[in-house]
Design goal:
Blueprint (H helix, E strand, L loop, with lengths): L3 E8 L14 E7 L2 E7 L5 H12 L18 E2 L2 E7 L2 E7 L21
Length: 117
């Protein structure tokens, strides 16, 4: 399944009308050809990861390859991995994106330490 990914980072007040029950926080809305996906970003849990995601989405990340400078990095990218498997009453689901090559092997031109908590 190919999904077109467009990332908009939304503050609490800017998306209150579309999502009236949101708690205060930092959110990103992924706009795809299959519908929108709202993500809550957690800078308290993964500050470097959130800062990286936001600056890539805004096109303001200074560490990207020259070809990506000044451009929203995720615009027009596809999800290179989609896994959906029903398991009883719940669904296991994962999507991966952010690779300009569409293979899972590309990236913005740098890496940083994993913040898994």
């Amino acid at each position: 399944m190919t999904l077109i990914l467009l990332v908009l980072v939304l503050g609490f007040t800017s998306c209150k009308s579309k999502y009236p029950d949101l708690k205060d926080g930092l959110y990103a809305e992924l706009q795809t050809d299959k519908g929108d996906i709202l993500l809550q970003l957690r800078p308290d849990k993964a500050p470097v990861t959130v800062a990286n995601f936001v600056t890539l989405a805004e096109g303001t990340n200074p560490y990207v390859k020259d070809e990506y400078k000044g451009k929203p990095f995720y615009d027009g990218l596809t999800f290179h991995r989609v896994v959906s498997k029903a398991t009883g009453a719940q669904n296991d689901f994962v999507i991966q994106g952010g690779d300009p090559l569409g293979t899972g092997e590309g990236g913005p031109g740098y890496q940083f330490k994993n913040e898994i908590s």
